[in-house]
Specification:
Elements lengths: L1 E5 L2 E4 L4 E8 L6 E8 L6 E7 L5 E3 L7 E6 L4 E6 L8 E9 L12 E2 L3 E6 L1
Parallel strand pairs: 2-11
Antiparallel strand pairs: 1-3, 3-8, 4-5, 4-9, 5-6, 7-8, 9-10, 9-11
C-alpha cells in the first residue's frame, strides 16, 4: 500500500488548510485511515481517524471542532480539513492506514505510512 500526503504549507493563525492522502495498492474495504502529527520536540500524536466502510470518525480533543476528516471512495483519498489553525498545530502531518473496522489512535497499530507534509502556522 502506498500513501501520498500533500497540501501542507504556511498559513497565518486562524487560517485553513486541507491535507490530502491518496492511497493505492489495495482495496480499502475494512480499512481505517488516520492522520498523525509530529511537532519539534514532541512525540508523534494521533489527530483524527476514519473508518473507510461507514465513514465514522474520531478526533483528538486538541482538534475537535476545528478539523474534519473525510474520504472520497472514488478517488481512494482521505482529507483533513483544518480550520481555525493555531501556532501549536505546526507539525509534520502523516497519514496512515491499517486493516480493521475500528479506529486506532496509537501509531504502532498502523501498518502503512505516507511521507509527511509540513504545516506551519504563524502567529
Amino acid at each position: 500500500v502506498q500513501l501520498q500526503a500533500s497540501g501542507g504549507g504556511l498559513v497565518q493563525a486562524g487560517g485553513s488548510l486541507r491535507l490530502s492522502c491518496a492511497a493505492s495498492g489495495r482495496t480499502f474495504n475494512n480499512t481505517n485511515m488516520g492522520w498523525f502529527r509530529h511537532a519539534p520536540g514532541k512525540e508523534r500524536e494521533f489527530v483524527a481517524g476514519i473508518v473507510w466502510n461507514d465513514g465514522s470518525t474520531y478526533y483528538a480533543d486538541s482538534v475537535k471542532g476545528r478539523f474534519t476528516i473525510s474520504r472520497d471512495n472514488g478517488k481512494n483519498t482521505v482529507y483533513l480539513q483544518m480550520n481555525s489553525l493555531k501556532p501549536e498545530d505546526t507539525a509534520v502531518y502523516h497519514c496512515a492506514g491499517r486493516p480493521g473496522k475500528f479506529i486506532a489512535t496509537y501509531e504502532y497499530q498502523y501498518n502503512y505510512w505516507g511521507q509527511g507534509t509540513l504545516v506551519t502556522v504563524s502567529s
